[in-house]
Amino acid sequence: TASNTIRHLISIADLTTPEFVSLVNRAQHHKKLIKAGVKPETWPLQGELVALLFSKRSTRTRISSEGAAAYFGGQPMFLGKDDIQLGVNESFYDTTKVISSMTSCIFARVNSHSEIQQLCEHSSVPIINSLCDKYHPLQAICDLLSIKENFKELKGLKLAWIGDSNNVINDLAIAAMKFGINVSIATPNGIEIEQHVIDAANATTAETGATLELTHDPKEAAKGANILVTDTFVSMGQEAETQKKLKQFEGFQINSDLVALADKDYKFMHCLPRHKEEVSDDVFYSDHSIVFPEAENRLYAAIATIEAFVVNKGQFL
Ligand code: CP
Ligand code: NVA
């Protein structure tokens, strides 16, 4: 079927390094144009719908993908979990067939990765994974753009992740390593990085030489780090485990004690939304923090993504 030839954005690990680098470069290119007030010359998605099939809340992903659709002349259509028949009255398969028959692509925010796989299998248009339990590729494109803007040379930098093992870091680790950045991940005891991430990291090490270090000691990860990153300790859908997870993450807050171990010119990043337990106010709102430019960069990441996967149908510039 046609869907076999469609390029979907599922995870960063599915992209070659040149493809990923191209997405980051194109995001930077579009940012420059937009900042210079240059309007797009053509609207390749004019008259088309861009569907956002979101079963979870979103601020940044929703705004950036709707903004990116508008940039190309497309009409974004937000389909939240209470808006459509899915789940209550209609199957995932039927919903996928119907939405993809009337739209140019589907940005999908789902619970489990298997839902992204089902969408890719049955959709007649590109699927853009807009967060599942395993991956968050749009965030990783944005984050590498944000790092690129803040450091002259990326090769050999140390990125420290102090937090959970799931979607954001699974893509960010591979993304950073594709740019030659060494990654050190501190998770609490009992929370491990999944084997598929380690396998993708090993393949990337063979290609770029960048390393992945795993530890349960936040200090070990923070030591000499150029970039410190974290995320919520309680991801969407884990609300029932809040007390247990907060206990597990005791000692994992990024605060003045921890950043004292980092490089003196360190940058702090966070995909947002943010809570005080994972990062103290004095770090989050410090001059080292690039969280708000990082959030804005989601727009340019979404633009580069629509350009490559929808407008150019899987051709990377
Ligand atoms: N960073 C991110 O994906 O944020 P939202 O959940 O607000 O989309
Ligand atoms: N890990 C978080 C990321 C939110 C953007 C979650 O899944 O809720």
Break the fold down into its secondary structure elements and pairings.
Elements: H1 17-35, E1 49-54, H2 60-71, E2 75-80, H3 92-102, E3 105-109, H4 113-122, E4 127-129, H5 137-150, E5 158-162, H6 167-178, E6 182-186, H7 195-208, E7 212-215, H8 218-222, E8 227-230, H9 242-248, H10 256-259, E9 267-270, H11 281-284, H12 291-311
Parallel strand pairs: 1-2, 1-3, 3-4, 5-6, 5-8, 6-7, 8-9
Helix pairs in contact: 1-5, 1-12, 2-12, 3-4, 5-6, 5-12, 6-7
Bound molecules: phosphoric acid mono(formamide)ester and norvaline.
The helix/strand series, from N terminus to C terminus, equals HEHEHEHEHEHEHEHEHHEHH
Which sequence of strands runs across the widest sheet? Answer: 7-6-5-8-9
- How many whole angstroms does the radius of gyration measure? 19 Å
Number of helices: 12
For the record, the CATH class of the largest domain is Alpha Beta
Strands, count: 9
- Low-pLDDT stretches are none
Structural class: alpha/beta
Give the CA-CA distance, first to last residue.
26 Å
CATH homologous superfamily descriptor of the largest domain: Aspartate/ornithine carbamoyltransferase
Task: State the major sheet.
Answer: 5 strands, parallel
In which range does the helix fraction lie? 40-55%
| CATH topology term of the largest domain | Rossmann fold
Average the pLDDT over all residues and give the rounded result.
97
Distinct ligands, ions and cofactors found in the model: phosphoric acid mono(formamide)ester, norvaline
Number of domains: 2
Shape: globular
